[in-house]
Write a structure and sequence with these properties.
Helix content is 34%, strand content 20%. It contains nine helices and nine strands. Helix 4 links the parallel strand 4 and strand 5. The chain is globular, with a radius of gyration of 17 Å. The N and C termini lie close together (9 Å).
């Protein structure tokens, strides 16, 4: 069984998260897929950041939506890195991407870029929000989508099917073998996050997961030898 290793915000355990430096490192280390997060700036740019505000990961303060792209570019995102836009990541690396969107507005902006840049075969669209996945499905009927969940039960399978998602990306601390088996029977792939230790990797493999999202590049190397 192929087990995908997915670089979480690049490789955020060793590089500043959601920066070109982190994404390039993830690709260099051989991660199969690179995951990132998207928000809209005040002027509608699709910027790559996890939080709704800039406080934690930059030297600025305030909501992303209060900043224009030019203003965001002035911030230090770690080790001198600047906040990238989605299109820059597409150009910087060749790996498949998982793009997590926070709302329907970001869904519309991402759909436009995917269409314009012909990225349907390269980008999976993820969200915690069912409506954002439903919006992507309306805009891009053939897009690959995934429902993300932290606190969930078996009902997460029905939720994914309702919005026609093909994959679940789930907090590994709550995943059960029953859920994985039911999801697979329903035709859904299951990814666990975050897989950062050898024990978590063994758990992911033992549960029969299709992949794990990790902060650390060494998990990619370890996954090759963990059955």
């Amino acid at each position: 069984m192929t087990f995908l290793t997915i670089g979480h915000r690049g490789v955020m355990g060793v590089e500043p998260e959601n920066t070109l430096r982190s994404f390039l490192r993830a690709e260099r280390e051989g991660l199969d897929v690179i995951e990132l997060d998207l928000h809209l700036s005040k002027d509608g740019a699709l910027v790559v950041m996890h939080d709704a505000d800039v406080d934690r990961t930059t030297d600025g303060q305030g909501p992303i939506s209060d900043f224009t792209l030019a203003e965001l570019r002035e911030l230090d995102a770690g080790q001198g890195e600047r906040i990238p836009v989605f299109e820059e990541v597409v150009d910087a690396v060749e790996a498949p991407l998982q793009a997590e969107i926070k709302d329907t507005a970001a869904a519309r902006a991402l759909a436009e870029v995917i269409t314009r840049r012909n990225l349907l075969d390269r980008v999976d669209v993820l969200s915690f929000h069912d409506q954002a996945i439903a919006e992507i499905r309306t805009l891009l009927p053939t897009a690959r989508t995934a429902l993300v969940a932290s606190r969930y039960g078996l009902d997460v399978i029905d939720r994914a099917q309702t919005v026609d998602a093909g994959m679940l990306v789930l907090n590994i601390r709550r995943i059960t073998l029953e859920l994985v088996q039911r999801a697979h029977a329903a035709g859904l792939k299951v990814i666990g996050w975050t897989v950062n230790t050898p024990d978590q990797l063994k758990l992911a493999r033992g549960l029969g997961l299709d992949g794990g999202t990790t902060d650390f590049p060494e998990i990619r190397r370890a996954a090759r030898y963990t059955a």
